Fold:
Amino acid sequence: MSQARIVRIHNELLGTYGDQGNAEVLAFRAKFHGITTTITDVRYNDPLPTNGDIYLLGGAEDAAQLLSLEALQRGDNLDILHFAIERGAVILAVCAGFQIIGNKFWANGKEVDGLGLLDVVSVPGEKRLVGDIKTISTVLGFELTGFENHMGRTILGPTAQAFGKVVTGNGNGDGKFDGAISGNIFGTYMHGPILARNPELADLLLTRATGRKYAQITDPLALKYATWRRKVIK
Amino acid sequence: MRLKLSILIAKLAGTLSKRFLRKSGETIPGRVLLALYPRAISILSQNRKIICISGTNGKTSTTKAIVEIISKLGSVTTSASGSNLDRGVATALMTKSEYAVLEVDELHLPRVISEAKPVAVLLLNLTRDQLHRMHEVKRVADKWATAAKSAPDTIFIGDVDDPFVALALNSAVKPLRVSFGGRKHLDGAVCPSCGVYLNWSGNNYKCSCGLTNSNPDELFEAGTAAYRNATFANVTGKVLGGGAIAINEQALERSVDRDYNGVTANLRLTKNPASWTEALNSVSGNDVVLIVNSREVDGIDTSWLWDISFMQLSGKHIIVCGERALDMAYRLHVEGIEVELTSNFDEAILKFAKGSHLHVLAAYTAFHELVTA
Structure:
């Protein structure tokens, strides 16, 4: 029996768009695979746990995003994340969280340095991008669905690869790609939450986090839900 | 075009749409009027006392309660239930009266304040809701604050236990700060005024920038949302010189009882995390129907279902229907709660034996369809 420690970073700040559900879906899918999980909620003033297997960040409003960034730059937190990446831990960062782990982003009208974990730069666009989104995942090779609600235009640097090729919606702003990946670091604009809409992605993260391959899960409702969303978003 | 003629045409449009399109006829007249005469709200508000009610939850029921109080002071016109955009406001103002008690959408409130110059504005609460349209809670609060600042003659009554409402009241020249002893806020981690991590101590907050719910002008006991709304109706009534009404929480809940061939149902409006949480606390029986839609007024995104814990429904007999029934079923599934899906409400009802009493928690559009059916 293997174990996965799920760390939900600053849910009180990065929980505005429902992304907290990603942790619940991971724990739920893990049960099918025989993986025991713990979910640790890290608050603004807490240090990050050093032994996390999956670190999660969600979407937020600007002021909350800046507070989360400041907290992650405080004390040993950034070192903890670097060390976690080195030992193969997974990071899934959505929307504001995706911007935070990049090199630079804008919030409250000014540019700030991000955590630099993912080679992307985000700038504000003119129009807010709101609506259903469908991509073809570059890692999984099949469709992912979600909902985007952001102002960001994200440009990938040479060491980041696009997370998904956009079928419907905007993603990083050019309508071509959504998110970015590098090793076990995943960034995306997809809410939904993304792991609820795409449970196979939860399985992939669990595989990456524990380093073990798992058999396919039979959960008809999860499959029905994911398939339906892929069908209705044209 | 002259205002009188515009009103005549607008009324005609309303009658036609009612008769031939079977619409409620509440938005068409206002829409036509504003198209023909853009300054109509401003002109029609002159020489009468306007009271506006806004907030994420409780607008409709609180408006009704205030109408009850104000109608003892003079003639009142009011918005039709839920018709709270600028066009709904314009429709309401077409009827002559001494007072107009208007339910106003959060984003439409600044326009209505600047044009109608209300004597009083009641701000109930502000929490995450329809984020595809509101985008951010703070964005709405900032718009309110700007509107409050530019209306120095208006009394702004509001619940300062909600930091976003407190922010708006801080900008008002004539604020009436009401507290119910503090309460947690789902979006309250950040100070909406200065952006620092908001300092909460239990249910109360006090920011270094001065934003706080302490030292209100009026302090009441804590209670349900319905009780708070009733209290606000009385506070607002008093400001206008009206007498208090008895607080009837049940009457103020956005809920209706119906009978479906021997199956009784309490229908309740649920449209965002705050109203869901309130509604879940009211579920006492074992038989539950949940209806989830995602049309414009419901919010076209359903991600927020994951902001709510439904554990209170664990072990109950639950049927889920509506356009986004699968979203709800999967959210509950992950919490360990299994449900049955039906393709519509009529089928859901058939799943319960005669004599059952159902709790029906319904999305905005579903609630309206059931209530008007």
About this structure: DSSP finds 15 helices and 15 strands in chain B.
